[in-house]
């Protein structure tokens, strides 16, 4: 690890602890699963039109899986964008980038450290949300076996492992969204514009997927990759959507990250 980048990374993590948007994002990541599990415990209905929706009263492990489906629409992209869209733009707003560059740090070190901090926040938010959802779900519906998408019953212990693995693969498109947020943060130099722009990008990709005549694009849309984890919940495991998710997300993430890096290196700090 580059010492300079590591220094920036640690400093950015410290700064995140004192920013309201960090607690807003992490708070939402924890509160939504609790509210959903509470609603499940108090009401008899279930969302039968989504995968695992019919099982939310039978096992607590269905609750985090249903949340992964609903959360990909806007919640998790927004939570991710709160920091990714702000982490560079805030330096412009506060006029602190010049100060950072005078600390014997190179631009590539600053970029790498900030990118790692934004990614760490996104990973923390998703994992925290998943862990809270599992705990709240098991309290509401019990630590019971889960019925897979293939109709086979999975033991509670194995279901827990599959849910955690699903969270891991869910992080792949989340990190791609993070890269888009970083790009907009660098280019717009405005936190609000970058955060909203990242969310709008996510919603636009979803809109493309439902437009008539564009069905052939769905396997290659970033929004579709949020469902790749479902391959783990089949017997045997279907690795095709998971492998596709790896390279499709890379096609979105790497160009965005590279463009953000180049734009940051070419930024005219003296001119604002």
Task: Describe this structure as you would to a colleague.
- This protein has 272 residues and is mostly helical.
- 67% of the residues lie in helices and 1% in strands.
- It has ten helices and two strands.
- The protein has helices at 3-16, 20-42, 62-71, 75-84, 89-94, 97-101, 107-141, 156-188, 191-210, 240-265, and strands at 146-147, 153-154.
- Strands 1-2 form a two-stranded antiparallel sheet.
- A hairpin with a 5-residue loop joins strand 1 and strand 2.
- The radius of gyration is 20 Å and the shape is globular.
- The relative contact order is 0.15.
- The mean pLDDT is 91.
Short synopsis of the structure:
The protein is mostly helical.
Estimate the strand proportion: under 5%
Structural class: mainly alpha
Helix content: 55-70%
Q: If you compute it from the alpha carbons, what radius of gyration comes out, rounded to the nearest whole angstrom?
A: 20 Å
The low-pLDDT segments are: none
Overall pLDDT score:
91
* Strand order of the biggest β-sheet: 1-2
Total count of strands? 2
- Total count of helical runs of at least 4 residues: 10
| Large-scale geometry | globular
Distance from N terminus to C terminus (CA atoms, Å) equals 30 Å
* N to C succession of SSEs: HHHHHHHEEHHH
Outline the biggest β-sheet.
2 strands, antiparallel
């Amino acid at each position: 690890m580059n010492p300079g980048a590591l220094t920036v990374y640690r400093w950015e993590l410290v700064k995140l602890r004192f920013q309201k948007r960090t607690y807003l994002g992490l708070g939402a990541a924890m509160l939504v699963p609790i509210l959903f599990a509470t609603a499940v415990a108090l009401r008899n209905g279930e969302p039968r039109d989504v995968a695992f929706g019919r099982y939310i009263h039978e096992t607590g492990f269905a609750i985090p899986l249903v949340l992964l489906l609903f959360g990909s629409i806007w919640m998790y992209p927004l939570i991710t964008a709160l920091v990714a869209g702000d982490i560079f733009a805030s330096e412009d707003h506060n006029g602190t980038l010049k100060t950072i560059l005078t600390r014997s740090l190179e631009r590539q070190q600053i970029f790498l450290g900030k990118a790692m901090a934004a990614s760490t926040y996104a990973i923390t938010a998703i994992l925290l949300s998943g862990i809270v959802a599992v705990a709240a779900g098991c309290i509401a519906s019990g630590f019971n076996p889960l019925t897979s998408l293939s109709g086979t019953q999975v033991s509670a212990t194995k279901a827990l492992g599959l849910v955690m693995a699903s969270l891991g693969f869910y992080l792949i498109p989340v990190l791609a969204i993070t890269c888009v947020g970083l790009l907009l943060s660098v280019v717009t130099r405005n936190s609000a514009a970058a955060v909203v722009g990242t969310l709008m990008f996510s919603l636009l990709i979803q809109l493309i997927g439902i437009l008539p005549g564009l069905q052939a694009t769905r396997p290659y849309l970033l929004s579709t990759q949020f469902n790749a984890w479902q391959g783990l919940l089949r017997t045997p495991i279907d690795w095709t959507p998971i492998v596709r998710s790896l390279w499709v997300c890379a096609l979105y993430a790497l160009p965005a990250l590279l463009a953000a890096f180049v734009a940051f290196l070419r930024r005219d700090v003296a001119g604002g």
